[in-house]
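Design job #97: recover the sequence.
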């Protein structure tokens, strides 16, 4: 924390070695990949231990049976082994080869049964005969195995020994927070789920990106207080919301991160509010990036944005993914593996996130102190960097836009959107103007002091 960077997150962005950062995020994914996670249990704890080696985490344990909003914290699930033995005693399906082979949250089983009966608890994907599907049974006490279609086809008639050496008993739900204090109590919430076993894009990429973002924010002295939450999907965000209900009004902006390591285009899903500052910031950054992207409206489905955006909270929390959940064939299968995500895609996702957060950090309102006529910019040295340009460079236009719209009403983001100029250029123009006698930060109450456009009604 000693080498703080001047210029905040924008300054940090300028220095970042993205290739290296992508490699480091990928390395964390490699470490986390073998762990069998679930919505509770030691897999989540091991995961948080590894994240905790990179950023300081405050780990919380919530007992099974605790009421959380309309839900209850479930029993804790842990597993040692699971397999299916054929008549010759060979493991034809083996949890030790892939933790996807067992339906996540399967209750303990030790039984012998004919293939016809066993089949009722076997799941495969006929369209992708080499892939193992990912299935869960969180809220119904059952068991099952997932296997490739080819493995399934090889099973001959006869009887099989089925063993799931798991425990489902009273314990805890585990989640963690990394809080980075800012200059204000206003908060930015970054949430990622941590409950999937050996699946890379969903959800190790989100964990790796959130970890790196927290690490980056810790290098600066942010304006906002940041709260990075690592928790199981659905029950984790519901638990977190129920335990933080009295301070949710501090959350000014939020992002749910998932599926950020694949080659797909960026997808930003708007918060339930639809046009919150986080929505406008994300849309602006994506629009001015060279990356292919899509903006989608809020739906009460998907990841944890639907909890933050439930009507009783309606928090300004959007969601950033590359390929969204369910929109790629590898989703929730063994093909979402270490070769499906790449360091360079993680690095691009990091850059987009940092730009969004840097925008939020630097967004603000200003007041033109010489609003009568266009002030003389040349005398104040504000034309120097434009020398040699043909036409009107955007840096010069940005100065004029900031002066024109800085009546205390429009934020820099709104000026950027109205002018069509990227936020960074508008922000630099505001900084240059604020270093002279022409512009000052505006903290006043807009409603009280600024007359509405059009003269206002009596
Ligand atoms: Zn998922």
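Job complete. Output follows.
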């Amino acid at each position: 924390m000693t080498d703080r960077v001047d210029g905040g997150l924008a300054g940090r962005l300028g220095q970042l070695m993205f290739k290296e950062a992508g490699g480091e995020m990928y390395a964390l994914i490699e470490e986390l990949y073998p762990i069998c996670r679930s919505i509770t249990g030691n897999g989540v704890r091991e995961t948080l231990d590894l994240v905790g080696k990179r950023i300081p985490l405050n780990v919380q344990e919530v007992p099974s049976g605790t009421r959380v909003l309309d839900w209850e914290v479930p029993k804790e699930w842990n597993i040692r082994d699971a397999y299916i033995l054929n008549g010759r005693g060979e493991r034809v399906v083996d949890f030790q080869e892939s933790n996807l082979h067992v339906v996540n949250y399967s209750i303990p089983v030790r039984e012998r049964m004919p293939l016809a009966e066993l089949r009722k608890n076997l799941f495969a994907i006929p369209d992708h005969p080499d892939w193992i599907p990912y299935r869960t049974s969180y809220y119904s006490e059952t068991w099952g195995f997932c296997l490739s279609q080819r493995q399934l086809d090889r099973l001959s008639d006869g009887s099989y020994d089925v063993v799931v050496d798991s425990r489902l008993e009273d314990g805890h739900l585990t989640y963690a927070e990394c809080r980075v204090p800012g200059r204000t109590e206003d908060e930015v919430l970054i949430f990622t789920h941590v409950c999937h076993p050996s699946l890379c894009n969903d959800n190790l990429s989100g964990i790796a990106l959130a970890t790196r973002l927290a690490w980056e924010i810790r290098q600066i002295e942010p304006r906002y207080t940041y709260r990075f939450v690592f928790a199981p999907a659905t029950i984790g965000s519901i638990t977190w919301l129920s335990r933080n209900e009295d301070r949710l009004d501090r959350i000014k902006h939020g992002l749910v991160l998932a599926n950020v390591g694949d080659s797909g285009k960026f997808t930003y899903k708007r918060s339930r509010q639809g046009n919150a500052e986080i929505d406008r910031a994300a849309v602006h950054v994506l629009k001015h990036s060279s990356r292919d992207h899509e903006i989608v409206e809020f739906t009460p489905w998907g990841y944890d944005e639907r909890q933050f955006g439930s009507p009783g909270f309606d928090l300004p929390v959007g969601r950033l993914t590359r390929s969204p959940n369910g929109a790629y064939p590898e989703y929730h299968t063994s093909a979402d593996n270490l070769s499906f995500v790449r360091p360079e895609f993680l690095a691009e996702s990091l850059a987009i996130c940092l730009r969004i957060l840097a925008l939020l950090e630097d967004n603000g309102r200003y007041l033109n102190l010489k609003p009568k006529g266009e002030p003389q910019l040349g005398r104040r040295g504000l034309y120097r960097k434009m020398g040699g340009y043909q036409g009107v460079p955007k840096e010069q236009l940005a100065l004029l836009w900031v002066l024109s719209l800085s009546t205390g009403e429009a934020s820099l983001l709104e000026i950027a959107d109205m002018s069509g100029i990227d936020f960074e250029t508008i922000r630099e123009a505001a900084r240059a103007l604020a270093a002279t006698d022409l512009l000052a930060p505006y903290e006043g109450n807009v409603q009280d002091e600024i007359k509405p456009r059009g003269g206002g009604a009596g």
